[in-house]
Write a structure and sequence with these properties.
The complex is a heterodimer of chains A (483) and B (252). Chain A has 483 residues and is of the alpha/beta class. In chain A, α2 packs antiparallel against α3 and α6 packs across α7. Chain A contains twelve helices and 23 strands. In chain B, the strands form three sheets. Chain B has a six-stranded mixed sheet, with helices on both faces. Chain B has a four-stranded antiparallel sheet with strand order 2-1-4-5, with helices on one face. Chain B has nine helices and twelve strands. With 252 residues, chain B is an alpha/beta fold. The chains are: A alpha/beta (483), B alpha/beta (252). Chains A and B meet through α9 and α10 of A and α2, β7 and α3 of B.
Chain lengths: 483, 252
């Protein structure tokens, strides 16, 4: 068994290349001048700069949260990070021909074709992509098609310029800059991200997707995503992320805010594949992300699905505030940690309205020397009648050097609530593997099959295009990790 | 088909198989009986390549090849099938998906392309009928929530689909009621032909009322101590294993 372990942990991170793109970067470090620099680079209005400066002032008063998460990592030196890096030349791109060919090659290597004709994966796939490299959005596809329906899908920077009223109204309304240390940091220095508005009664005809890529050494990536689903609208949103292999740790601190109005539904799916570090635990992305949605109107629904395979550190709790009556929040998660990766991830379901329902299905898989924690809060406020929650947290261990932990927090202030929590821990047994091998499957195939079976409930939630990718990713992330 | 010569194997320092010999020709059915702890299941696991066991001596030639040199998956692809005493559950993986993957791997090893979806489904349907497996079971997760009898029946179903050259049945009869036993035995009998061989490991003579063996061997302390025609099983049933133990000790 240990032979196999040795053999397969040598599998390489496929997206670890760097692209030789000329970059425009800010000086290293963080102070008010850097924030003014970023704001100026982006030609922002005063209100945006003020927002950043307020966030920065708040951030200065806050401490890096180091006590409660089940994570161990050296203190981050926030003065050793470059907060702005953009592919040069930074000018308005009118057609694909104007995009740096190196950049196009980068996205091709990632399997993301920006050419609208060659739609993703060739078949009948229908996805609009916003590609964000380091600090800026380089290209958003299908914009015109979407515009016909009144859907706004563009980079965050563009939204600040073109749709300031919407940005002003909603930015920070779900995740205020005071929310936490990383949210404050992001609010001060965020450089780009995606913006999406679905008007009343519109069902978005295609998957909306943002592809994030960290490229430049020494940079941090701080993007924001803001999704607003107006009354009776629907959108499905995909997010993918990768980064080059580097020896140092790079920081990613993002914010995602979702607002679902009356009868609206938003489905947000993530396949997070940031560089996880090498097999000795060197390098890798520190991923500190605040994702939260609010079911603002009655009968609205927000569903988070995440497949987390990358990052050295994952600190992430996509949450739903169930404000509207009869609103629904869902969280489906697969988190894989191998080698020395650490994940502390889960969700928060805050029940405020009447007859609200939430479902949490979390599947943790730990291998190697990794640590994988589920941390989830279910809160039912006083007066929130007939709230229902079902939580299921399963952990799968591979080998005996890794850890799986579950930290459920349940706060019920209304007696009419019904809350269920189930948890299991199991081990991929040698018996399971031997059984598969005896039927002619090799170790790799066997692990792929077993793990995908274990995660089926979550993978079923992903849109087709992503599900296939995620299945492959799971197998690759865990190759040879059984002991 | 398979020739086992002077096989010695065990777990850690504990030797369990102590010079085991057996030859099975194509189309033959050999029953191996013996008291608990005589090494019957160890034999099955060693032949299938379970890694907990160490082979210290001996030789196993399977279809002209050195079996002990092969990985467990290659043994399976060469046509060795083990029906497990305790079939393993694989949650979330449907039986059909599992078998599709297994069959593709085996076919690939033999230079054959995977079966077309419709041919595969036709095969599944045919074999399901053959072993009287209820429709629902094939679509359910591998062995998950199956009763003891369903699990054993599922092993026979898998065997029917994968069509091995040599099938080893490790106490497939244990925990089965008489109806299930008959269904399992019928499945095996339908799969018997002049090329396919079986090693049927069992504690009780009961199964051999339904699967009539060509030879019966009695295993004791890691060796075959007595071999004979199918009537030997009846004799064992009558006299019990103590008879063999005493006889064996008197030889020593």
């Amino acid at each position: 068994m240990s032979d196999i372990l040795h053999e397969v942990t040598s599998s390489e991170y496929k997206y670890g290349f760097t692209s030789d793109i000329e970059m425009d970067t800010a000086p290293m470090g963080l102070n008010e001048d850097i924030i003014r620099f970023i704001s100026k680079k982006k030609n922002e209005p005063d209100w945006m700069l003020e927002f950043r400066l307020k966030a920065f002032a708040k951030w200065l008063t806050m401490n890096e949260p180091r006590n409660w998460a089940h994570l161990k990592y050296p203190a981050i030196d926030f003065q050793k990070i470059i907060y702005y890096a953009a592919p040069k030349p930074k000018k308005q791109l009118n057609s694909l021909d104007e995009v740096d060919p190196e950049l196009l090659k980068t996205f091709e290597k990632l399997g993301i074709s920006l050419e609208e004709q060659k739609r993703l994966s060739g078949v009948s796939s229908n996805i609009a992509v916003d590609a964000v490299i380091d600090s800026v959005s380089v290209k958003t596809t299908f914009k015109e098609t979407l515009a016909e329906k009144g859907i706004i899908f563009c980079s965050f920077s563009e939204a600040v310029q073109e749709h300031p009223d919407l940005v002003k109204k909603y930015m920070g309304s779900v995740v205020p800059y005071t929310d936490n240390f990383y949210a404050a940091l992001n609010s001060a220095v965020f450089t780009d991200g995606s913006f999406c508005y679905i008007p009343k009664g519109v069902r978005c005809p295609m998957e909306l997707s943002t592809y994030f890529r960290i490229n430049t050494a020494g940079t941090g990536q701080f993007e924001r995503t803001l999704i607003i689903a107006d009354e009776s609208s629907y959108a499905s949103y995909l997010e993918g992320c990768t980064a080059p292999k580097r020896d140092e740790n790079q920081l990613h601190a993002a914010i995602v805010e979702i607002i679902a109005h009356k009868n609206a539904e938003v489905k947000y799916s993530t396949v997070q594949n940031w560089f996880p570090g090498d097999k000795n635990g060197n390098g890798g992305i520190f991923n500190f992300v605040t994702k939260r949605g609010i079911c603002f109107g009655d009968n609205s629904k927000i569903s988070w699905t995440q497949v987390e395979t990358g990052s050295a550190i994952t600190w992430k709790y996509p949450s739903v505030i169930l404000k509207g009556n009869n609103s629904v929040g869902e969280f489906y998660s697969v988190a894989v940690t191998n080698n020395y990766q650490q994940a502390d991830t889960g969700t928060k379901m805050i029940h405020l309205g009447d007859n609200t329902r939430s479902t949490i299905v979390s599947k943790g898989i730990s291998a190697g020397f990794s640590n994988n924690s589920y941390r989830g809060l279910v809160r039912v406020a006083k007066g929130a009648k007939n709230a229902r929650n079902f939580s299921q947290c399963d952990s799968l261990l591979m080998g005996d050097k890794c850890g799986a932990h579950t930290f459920p927090y349940i706060e019920i202030k209304d007696p009419s609530a019904v809350v269920e929590h189930e948890a299991t821990t199991s081990k991929i047994g040698e018996d399971q593997l031997f059984y598969c091998k005896q039927r002619g499957l090799d170790t790799e195939k066997a692990i792929g099959l077993i793990v995908n079976g274990y995660c089926k409930e979550v993978l079923n939630q992903l849109p087709m295009e992503f599900a296939v990718e995620a299945q492959k990713l799971l197998s690759v992330s865990l190759e040879g990790s059984v002991g | 088909m398979i020739r086992i010569k002077n096989l010695r194997a065990g777990i850690g320092d504990k030797e369990i198989l102590k010079g085991f010999n057996l030859e099975v020709k194509p189309g033959e059915v050999h029953a191996i009986m013996g008291p608990n702890g005589s090494g019957k299941s160890t034999l099955a696991n060693v032949l299938a390549g379970k890694e907990d066991y160490t082979v210290t001596e001996g030789e196993v030639i399977f279809n002209g090849k050195d079996l002990l040199e092969m990985s467990p998956e290659d043994r399976a692809r060469e046509g060795l099938f083990l029906a497990f005493q305790y079939p393993i559950e694989i949650p979330g993986v449907s039986n059909i998906n599992f078998l599709k993957n297994a069959l593709s791997e085996i076919r690939n090893y033999r230079g054959l392309p995977p079966l077309e979806a419709k041919d595969f489904l036709a095969l599944i349907k045919e074999k399901q009928a053959m072993v009287e497996l209820q429709g629902g079971l094939a679509n359910r997760s591998v062995n998950e929530g199956f009763s003891g009898g369903e699990k054993k029946r599922n092993e026979i179903f898998q065997m029917a689909v994968l069509e091995p050259a040599l099938a080893i049945l490790d106490e497939t009869d244990s925990g089965l009621d008489i109806d299930a036993l008959r269904v399992v035995a019928n499945g095996v009998n339908k799969l018997r032909n002049e090329k396919r061989s079986f090693i049927v490991i069992t504690h009780y003579q009961r199964l051999l009322d339904y699967i009539i063996p060509d030879f019966v061997h009695v295993m004791y302390q890691g060796q075959i101590v007595k071999s004979g025609p199918k009537e030997l099983a009846l004799e064992l049933e009558e006299k019990g294993y103590d008879w063999i133990k005493k006889e064996d000790e008197s030889i020593v």
